[in-house]
Design brief:
The chain has helices at about 1-40, 45, 120-140, 170-175, 175-180, 185-195, 210-225; strands at about 50, 60, 165, 195-200, 210. By secondary structure, it is mainly α.
């Protein structure tokens, strides 16, 4: 009996020591080491890839898209759709172009897409309506936009619905409208887009892209100049 109690006590002691050691190593030392390395080598990414404006105020993350819309006339009306603020470069659609209930308006609770087939009647209608809206919003008196010039990312949401980037083609399509709305030369706005166009990762992965938030921060600074 005594031997049994001693064995039990010894096993409990060994288990408690193991628990203590693993708690310290896995719950304290390892997280501190990982955090220290991340802060030392990748501080920007470790802190959420934050973007600041000219005053140093954090305005968002380069990893998450944002909307640029006008205030709703009735903020309490869930059926009212906020209109885009056409002073700014607009991102990709974030709501699956219609009845996607997973993610509406770059909400961060969940993300997802509609997962409809390319020949789905609803999707075809949504894309057609979205293309007409892009043409209407971005056409100016001196620079009309043709439907065939509208790129795919202007009328479709990404798989997550949170894509922070648009294609250089979509950014360039918006240049004349943004320039006119802000009283800026179109050539200067086009140059701004070119300066914020990133190439393929490592030269071969992905597609060229423009981060909309970074572009709009630069646009705001240009408008103040």
């Amino acid at each position: 009996m005594n031997t049994s109690l001693k064995n039990t006590a010894r096993m409990l002691g060994a288990g408690l020591r193991a628990l203590l050691v693993l708690s310290v190593v896995c719950g304290v030392l390892y997280p501190l080491a990982v955090t220290g390395v991340a802060q030392a080598l990748f501080s920007g990414k470790a802190d959420g890839s934050e973007i600041t404006d000219g005053s140093g105020r954090t305005v968002g993350s380069s990893l998450i898209g944002q909307t640029y819309t006008l205030p709703k006339q009735d903020p309490d009306d869930p059926a009212e759709v906020a209109e885009p603020d056409l002073r700014w470069f607009q991102p990709r659609p974030s709501n699956g172009l219609g009845s996607n209930s997973v993610n509406t308006g770059y909400a961060l609770i969940l993300s997802g897409a509609t997962n409809r087939a390319a020949d789905n009647a609803d999707l075809v209608r949504w894309v057609t309506e979205a293309k007409a809206a892009v043409v209407a919003d971005n056409s100016t008196a001196s620079h009309p936009v043709r439907p065939q010039d509208v790129p795919a990312d202007a009328v479709t949401s990404s798989g997550s619905g949170l894509d922070p980037d648009i294609s250089p083609e979509y950014a360039q399509l918006q240049v004349h409208r943004v320039a006119e709305r802000n009283g800026l030369p179109a050539e200067e706005v086009a140059k701004l887009v070119a300066e914020h166009t990133e190439g393929r990762t490592l030269g071969f992965m992905g597609e060229p892209r423009v981060n909309v938030l970074e572009l709009n921060v630069a646009l705001k600074d240009m408008s103040k100049a």
